[in-house]
From TrEMBL:
Residues 58-174 form the RGS domain. It comes from Pterocles burchelli. It is a peripheral membrane protein. The gene is Rgs8. InterPro entries: RGS (IPR016137), RGS_RGS8 (IPR034949), RGS_sf (IPR036305), RGS_subdom1/3 (IPR024066), RGS_subdomain_2 (IPR044926). GO terms for biological process: negative regulation of signal transduction. This is Regulator of G-protein signaling 8. It is found in: Cell membrane; Cell projection, Dendrite; Nucleus; Perikaryon.
Length: 182
């Protein structure tokens, strides 16, 4: 069978390799430090236990902190759901658009990447929200993604955020900041 269909064997081997990489995803502190915005050691020296502890106060506190956002992104990658955060961030950036000329093209790019059915990084929103957003695209405004962004924010806050607070990434990070104090 292999000599007759060598291309299939090659594809299967490639698929096994990719699946093997996926199964090695880990939920660890070192994964978080790899994606920090600046040099990991310097960044973590500046992060206090108090700051990291405040991330548990509210989801918005976490999202507003540079290292909190990086830690949450690392966690979402372990769950293969970072598209939710990327969409939320894209919407935040979109709301800062001042050029009417750029508004429509940015809106289209966000819609095609995250909202459209079969989008490469499709977010999990209900049909009504998807359709409302599609209608909003006819005349894009700074608020055209508000409902979809709100749904994704709520989903992350109720679902991913509590798991993040229990994750090895977060607990290891807290331990690391506390260890520096002793």
């Amino acid at each position: 069978l292999t000599p007759l269909l060598p291309h299939i064997d090659h594809r299967n081997r490639g698929m096994r390799t990719r699946l093997g990489c996926l199964s090695h995803k880990s939920d660890s502190y070192s994964d978080f430090t790899a994606i920090l915005p600046d040099k990991p050691n310097r960044a973590l020296k500046r992060l206090s236990t108090e700051e990291a502890t405040r991330w548990a106060d509210s989801f918005d506190v976490l999202l507003s902190h540079k290292y909190g956002l990086a830690a949450f992104r690392a966690f979402l990658k372990t769950e293969f759901s970072e598209e939710n955060l990327e969409f939320w961030l894209a919407c935040e950036d979109f709301k800062k658009t001042r050029s009417a000329a750029k508004l429509a093209s940015k809106a289209q790019r966000i819609f095609e990447e995250f909202i459209d059915v079969q989008a490469p990084r499709e977010v999990n929103i209900d049909f009504q929200t998807r359709e409302l957003t599609r209608r909003n695209m006819q005349e894009p405004s700074l608020s055209c993604f508000d409902q979809a962004q709100g749904k994704v924010h709520s989903l992350m806050e109720k679902d991913s955020y509590p798991r993040f607070l229990r994750s090895k990434i977060y607990t290891d990070l807290l331990s690391q900041t506390q260890r520096r104090l002793s």
